[in-house]
């Protein structure tokens, strides 16, 4: 709607100052000509907005002009209160600030929208931790947050998974990411993107050196690269298995991270065929927890690995308990 677009232009100009017309057009997915028509409409409505053409030109508001209008619709106000329920602000020490901000937003909402926002707060709860998994460790991300906002290099002591002792790195942070309740530091080390799990960072110290990020690269760009690197592992093993329908729901909850695609289920028969991806053949042992409710069909080396493991377990429990050493 044009009214929403005009308000968006106004709020962007308040936040950013002078903004090129082509950038506004890209953000709002309209033509530059439409942006200039919208600017004229704002000016006619009494908003002190003006356009400067030329290389360093753009669209801006007269200095000192601000509006307190929120322009929030009912759905937008609900979205804010759901966002507040996700809990990421707690780890950043922003609990009190979030509560204060929501009270101000509630007071600024148009009267007809307030009941919907309040009902959302009472009816929607977002829990970031997974079922049947250990709760995420309590992590103090204050030093990491300081480095992210201070634009300075960070010296960390980091313990890799499976390592006995932490190692020291100097990194250039892009930002922090919270995924499924776990915090990660996204940073470059020697201009190479790296992912550091926050609960494995034993110590973090700001240095006096300014951060050195790659030109034109933002947090979202680096996160997308690192995320693909974790999710798409070359050289892995593709496994075909069948799952008994009585255990299929549990199987999906426990093995979702290994599924290559959501399995097709026509609702017929006792067995459902699935495709799984593992970094190595040995990882297929995960399926032994389902007993005879899951059968690996291919490849042969995966079946052999499970047979060897099952035989070893049978031998272990088939005799008398071993004496402790």
Short description:
The chain is 38% helix and 22% strand. By secondary structure, it is an alpha+beta fold. The longest helix is centred in the last third of the chain and has 19 residues.
Tell me what the structure shows.
This protein has 325 residues and is of the alpha+beta class. The protein has eleven helices and ten strands. Helix content is 38%, strand content 22%. The protein starts with a helix and ends in a 7-residue tail after the last helix.
What series of H and E elements makes up the topology?
HHHEEHHHHHEEEEEHEHEEH
Main sheet summary: 5 strands, antiparallel
Low-confidence stretches are none
Note the overall shape.
Answer: elongated
- pLDDT averaged over residues: 81
How many helical stretches?
11
Assembly form of the protein: single chain
Structural class estimated from helices and strands: alpha+beta
Using DSSP, what is the number of strands? Answer: 10
Could you give the distance between the termini? 76 Å
Helix content: 25-40%
| Percentage of β-strand residues | 15-25%
